């Protein structure tokens, strides 16, 4: 038997799940497939920022910055558990960018879109004891947002499921053929090998770095656009300053490097921009990238870092829309959505480019393209829709309420659960009245109850899914603890 849907989305990154959620919420029947875990590639390898893109102003990307700044406010409102304000400092060195240029850029950044929740930019003098080198006497401050990017993907996928979409991770699209006004798509489960056929009126190619390969290998079509693959790498080191600020550092080559507070004990440093022509799923940081990031930080901070200070690193591939600029850093982060179809020809919706901050706007624009095919579908709705777990007004108040409801839970665990799940924490802890009710403790506050919840409600299958995407506890787990969790997930561990 062949399943029938209105829309089949290929790709479970942030753009794919965003399109699935928007379309399902407007009344379309939707199925999404992803060859690996949701958000396992580009969407979990970002700089963890919801931002307008201050440096894009130098490239005159005013429309992109305006849209991103407007989306920043939407996302801060809709996902207060996983997205929160972050204050940045840009150390001033006149030989890199003059003060007037920075002031002009920040004025535009403050005014290109309506600012509701964040304070304006400012110029500040460095006080004694600053973590920056003595020759840096002033900084420019501005605000943006921090995001748990991998959890954003999961919550948008849950939003899609809540509106009736079928979400199928670890399911590869192995082929699609047009049959007049519909596509016949073949899907294969990566675990069981089971093959199923799905008939869909619209096929959406949201495969990110694989968007061109999907055209060529699976659709047997030629894309009219070219994607430029650019590798971005990040490193994690022990926290190098405790002032609560993120820093944006100007490199001599004109690029910028972020230093961002991360998971209470670390600093996240990135990103690089390196041309890439390999397999997008097999990417890692290189020694020159490590040196580039460390040299940039050491040029600004009193505390000096060495390669031995690295705790963790990750790399991701940005699928940028080719615009024939010479340098990767100059390529636009804007997106393009295209719909191709004709009389009695099934529709193909394709997403090129994009950035995590504008995922919701991209998804809305993509689904708007389908109005002519589905004239009875609903209106755009996601701008005013809280993501699952985001129905609260203040995170500290939520943490206090959870501490009152679960006084037997350690305070640091309550805080982590609130930051990760928001009001969904109640579902994680349902019917638990004491620590033993949480089941087996795998380490660092990860209990059997939470592991089971992630498998049942958030599509988790592996230790990597749980320790690096659903949580960030992989930074603390040792090999023995990871193996114990792996055994449990495989059904061989002791659940007592």
From TrEMBL:
<protein>
    <recommendedName>
        <fullName>Glycerol-3-phosphate dehydrogenase</fullName>
        <ecNumber>1.1.5.3</ecNumber>
    </recommendedName>
</protein>
<dbReference type="Pfam" id="PF01266">
    <property type="entry name" value="DAO"/>
</dbReference>
<feature type="domain" description="Alpha-glycerophosphate oxidase C-terminal">
    <location>
        <begin position="382"/>
        <end position="481"/>
    </location>
</feature>
<keyword id="KW-0560">Oxidoreductase</keyword>
<feature type="domain" description="FAD dependent oxidoreductase">
    <location>
        <begin position="6"/>
        <end position="360"/>
    </location>
</feature>
<dbReference type="GO" id="GO:0004368">
    <property type="term" value="F:glycerol-3-phosphate dehydrogenase (quinone) activity"/>
</dbReference>
<dbReference type="InterPro" id="IPR031656">
    <property type="entry name" value="DAO_C"/>
</dbReference>
<dbReference type="InterPro" id="IPR006076">
    <property type="entry name" value="FAD-dep_OxRdtase"/>
</dbReference>
<dbReference type="InterPro" id="IPR038299">
    <property type="entry name" value="DAO_C_sf"/>
</dbReference>
<dbReference type="InterPro" id="IPR036188">
    <property type="entry name" value="FAD/NAD-bd_sf"/>
</dbReference>
<keyword id="KW-0274">FAD</keyword>
<comment type="similarity">
    <text>Belongs to the FAD-dependent glycerol-3-phosphate dehydrogenase family.</text>
</comment>
<dbReference type="Pfam" id="PF16901">
    <property type="entry name" value="DAO_C"/>
</dbReference>
<dbReference type="GO" id="GO:0009331">
    <property type="term" value="C:glycerol-3-phosphate dehydrogenase (FAD) complex"/>
</dbReference>
<dbReference type="GO" id="GO:0046168">
    <property type="term" value="P:glycerol-3-phosphate catabolic process"/>
</dbReference>
<keyword id="KW-0285">Flavoprotein</keyword>
<dbReference type="InterPro" id="IPR000447">
    <property type="entry name" value="G3P_DH_FAD-dep"/>
</dbReference>
């Amino acid at each position: 038997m062949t399943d029938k849907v209105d829309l089949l989305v290929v790709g479970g990154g942030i753009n794919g799940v965003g399109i699935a959620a928007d379309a399902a919420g407007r009344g379309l029947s939707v199925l999404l497939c992803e060859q690996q875990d949701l958000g396992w590639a580009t969407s979990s390898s970002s700089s963890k920022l919801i931002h307008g893109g201050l440096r894009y102003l130098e490239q005159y990307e005013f429309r992109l910055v305006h849209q991103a700044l407007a989306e920043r406010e939407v996302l801060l409102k809709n996902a207060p558990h996983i997205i929160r304000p972050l204050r940045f400092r840009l150390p001033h060195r006149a030989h890199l960018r003059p003060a007037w240029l920075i002031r002009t850029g920040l004025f535009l950044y403050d005014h290109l879109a309506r600012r509701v929740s964040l304070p304006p930019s400012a110029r500040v003098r460095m006080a004694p004891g600053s973590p920056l080198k003595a020759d840096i006497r002033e900084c420019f401050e501005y605000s943006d947002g921090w995001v748990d990017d991998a959890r954003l993907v999961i919550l948008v996928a849950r939003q899609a499921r809540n509106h009736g979409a079928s979400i199928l991770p670890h399911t590869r699209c192995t082929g699609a053929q047009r049959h007049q006004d519909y596509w016949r798509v073949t899907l294969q489960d990566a675990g069981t090998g089971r093959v199923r056929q799905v008939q869909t009126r619209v096929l959406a190619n949201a495969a990110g770095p694989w968007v061109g390969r999907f055209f060529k290998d699976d659709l047997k079509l030629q894309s009219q656009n070219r994607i430029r693959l650019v590798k971005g790498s990040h490193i994690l080191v022990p926290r190098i300053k405790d002032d609560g600020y993120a820093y944006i550092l100007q490199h001599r080559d004109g690029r910028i490097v972020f230093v961002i507070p991360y998971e209470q004990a670390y600093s996240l440093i990135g990103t690089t921009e390196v041309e890439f022509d390999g397999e997008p799923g097999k990417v890692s940081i290189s020694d020159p990238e490590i040196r580039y990031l460390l040299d940039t930080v050491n040029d600004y901070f009193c505390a000096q870092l060495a390669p031995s200070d690295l705790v963790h690193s990750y790399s991701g591939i940005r699928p940028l829309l080719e615009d024939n600029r010479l340098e990767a850093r100059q390529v636009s982060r804007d997106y393009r959505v295209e719909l191709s179809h004709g009389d009695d020809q099934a529709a193909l919706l394709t997403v090129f480019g994009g950035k995590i901050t504008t995922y919701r706007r991209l998804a809305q624009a993509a689904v708007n393209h389908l109005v002519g095919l589905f004239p009875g579908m609903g209106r755009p709705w996601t701008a005013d829709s809280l993501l699952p777990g985001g129905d609260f007004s203040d995170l500290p108040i939520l943490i206090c309420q959870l501490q009152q409801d679960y006084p037997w839970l350690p305070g640091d665990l309550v805080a982590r659960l609130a930051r990760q799940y928001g009001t969904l924490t109640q579902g994680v802890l349902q019917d638990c009245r004491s620590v033993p009710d949480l089941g087996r403790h795998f380490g660092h506050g990860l209990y059997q109850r939470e592991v089971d919840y992630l498998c049942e409600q958030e599509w988790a299958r592996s230790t990597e899914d749980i320790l690096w995407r659903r949580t960030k506890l992989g930074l603390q787990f040792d090999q023995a603890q990871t193996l114990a969790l792996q055994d449990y997930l495989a059904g061989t561990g002791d659940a007592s």
